[in-house]
């Protein structure tokens, strides 16, 4: 392009400069034509006037020439740009079709030349990018093949893991994952799973051992509770018999008190009668006979009272023996309560351990609380029984002492009445010594009246103590019945615990654990 090479480089670098240069050329050409036209008009005129028509025609021609030049420049410049852009678009399409060998060289240094340079840079970058893409494609293909190989290995390992996990899910906790793949994640999964299964196996083994211990212990406790329940019933029956005997004793003592009061009145009457014997000597024989009969009756009543007192002493001794038996039973109940507390503590400890591992331990906790509550109620009942027994022992000892005193008094009174009977017989046989006999009778009857009054007081006190003993015996009987009911409730709960222990044993039989894990606490039992 010789024309373009003739244009200065400054104008060639900017397409806008080209347009301005072309416009300036058109303007200069138009001005030149206008000057030539003016000179022509002036040359053809007379030198004084120029016709208006000539001027208008001249300007019209100049305008037409100007626009013709302008259109020509526009066509030339636009066609040049259009041609350059068309060529560039064609080459760009070839590049888009994959032909990177397209010639993008040009001698233009304007915007079109820059556009050619940009396309060439883009083509070179695209070629480099395609080379990189080819390299990456080969790498991706290699990585894909390696990934497929690893996927096959992972699938094989996953199948093995799945089989082992399925076996563990079915209860065989002796299974372990064996990682046979060079993959840190799969090895970590295998190690974590093996550790988890080992912990679960140990937990199940502990549950098995604990279930067997609970089963055996609950069986022993159930047997002990049955024995305690039987003994408690026997104690309750014995205490009820004691209560009934005490009630009968109270009734007998009340009768004895009435009889002693009658005896006291009789003795007082005898004393009054002996005071007037001096004036009624004619009736001495009859009165002596009556006195002998009364003395015989009193002697018989004293003998009966002495026998009844002996029976009361025997009853109290029997009450002491029964209280000793109750105390032995209480000691046994106390030991069972301590064992029950220990069992509840163990159940709470095992429930806490199971809660730490995520197992459901609500059943253990409820049974442990119930057993502990029953144990506390049993202990409270035992304490009440011990207090009642202590009170019974104290009152029984006091009653024994008082009854021994009554027995001594009754013996003294019996001896006194016997002496009176002898004296009355002597009076019948020897009326001649009436005065001396009367004096002796006065002295004897006075002493007898005092003794009879003291005896009546003692018998009343014994009757009061016997009534209180009856009340205490009834309270002990009620406490024994309550203890029996509590023990029956404990026995029922122990039976429930035994059933739940059996259910727990049946539940853990689903799991297969290594025998070594179970033998860690006492051996394995497949029974």
From TrEMBL:
Residues 227-236 have a biased composition (Basic and acidic residues). One of its GO terms (biological process) is signal transduction. InterPro entries: HAMP_dom (IPR003660), MCPsignal_dom (IPR004089). The chain crosses the membrane at residues 20-42, 62-85. Keywords: Coiled coil, Membrane, Transducer, Transmembrane, Transmembrane helix. Residues 224-463 form the Methyl-accepting transducer domain. One of its GO terms (cellular component) is membrane. Residues 237-247 have a biased composition (Polar residues). Residues 130-164, 302-336, 375-402 form a coiled coil. Pfam families: HAMP, MCPsignal. Residues 79-131, 152-205 form the HAMP domain. It comes from the Archaea. Residues 223-251 are annotated as: Disordered. Belongs to the methyl-accepting chemotaxis (MCP) protein family. This is Methyl-accepting chemotaxis protein.
């Amino acid at each position: 392009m010789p024309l373009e090479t003739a244009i200065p480089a400054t104008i060639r670098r900017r397409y806008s400069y080209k347009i301005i240069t072309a416009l300036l050329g058109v303007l200069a050409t138009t001005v030149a034509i206008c000057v030539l036209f003016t000179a022509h008009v002036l040359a053809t005129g007379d030198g004084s006037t120029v016709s208006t028509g000539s001027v208008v025609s001249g300007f019209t021609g100049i305008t037409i020439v100007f626009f013709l030049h302008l259109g020509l420049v526009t066509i030339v410049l636009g066609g040049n740009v259009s041609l350059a852009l068309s060529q560039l678009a064609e080459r760009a399409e070839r590049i888009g079709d994959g032909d990177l060998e397209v010639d993008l060289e040009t001698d233009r240094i304007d915007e079109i030349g820059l556009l050619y340079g940009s396309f060439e840079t883009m083509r070179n970058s695209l070629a480099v990018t395609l080379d990189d893409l080819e390299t990456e494609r080969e790498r991706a293909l290699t990585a894909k093949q390696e990934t497929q190989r690893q996927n096959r290995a992972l699938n094989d390992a996953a199948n093995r893991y799945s089989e082992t996990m399925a076996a563990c899910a079915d209860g065989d906790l002796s299974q372990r994952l064996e990682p046979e793949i060079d993959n840190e994640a799969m090895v970590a999964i295998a190690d974590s799973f093996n550790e988890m299964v080992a912990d679960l196996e140990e937990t199940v083994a502990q549950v098995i051992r604990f279930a067997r211990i609970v089963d055996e212990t609950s069986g022993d406790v159930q047997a002990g509770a049955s024995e305690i329940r039987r003994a408690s019933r026997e104690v309750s029956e014995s205490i009820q018999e004691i209560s009934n005997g005490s009630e009968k004793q109270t009734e007998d003592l009340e009768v004895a008190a009435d009889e002693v009061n009658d005896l006291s009145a009789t003795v007082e009457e005898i004393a009054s009668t002996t005071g007037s014997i001096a004036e009624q000597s004619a009736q001495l024989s009859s009165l002596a006979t009556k006195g002998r009969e009364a003395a015989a009756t009193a002697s018989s009543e004293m003998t009966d009272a002495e026998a009844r007192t002996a029976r009361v002493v025997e009853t109290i001794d029997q009450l002491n023996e029964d209280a000793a038996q109750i105390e032995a039973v209480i000691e046994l109940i106390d030991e069972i309560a301590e064992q029950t507390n220990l069992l509840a503590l163990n159940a709470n400890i095992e429930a806490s351990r199971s809660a730490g591992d995520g197992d459901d331990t609500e059943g253990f906790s409820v049974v442990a609380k119930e057993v502990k509550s029953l144990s506390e109620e049993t202990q409270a009942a035992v304490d009440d029984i011990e207090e009642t027994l202590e009170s019974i022992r104290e009152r029984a000892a006091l009653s024994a002492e008082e009854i021994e005193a009554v027995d001594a008094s009754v013996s003294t009174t019996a001896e006194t009445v016997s002496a009176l009977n002898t004296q009355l017989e002597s009076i019948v046989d020897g009326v001649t010594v009436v005065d001396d006999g009367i004096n002796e009778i006065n002295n004897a009857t006075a002493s007898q009246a005092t003794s009879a009054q003291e005896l009546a007081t003692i018998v009343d006190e014994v009757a009061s103590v016997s009534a209180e003993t009856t009340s205490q015996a009834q309270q002990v009987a009620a406490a024994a019945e309550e203890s029996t009911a509590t023990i029956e409730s404990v026995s029922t709960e122990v039976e429930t615990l035994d059933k739940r222990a059996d259910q727990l044993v049946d539940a853990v039989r689903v799991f297969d654990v290594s025998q070594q894990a179970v033998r860690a606490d006492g051996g394995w039992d497949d029974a």
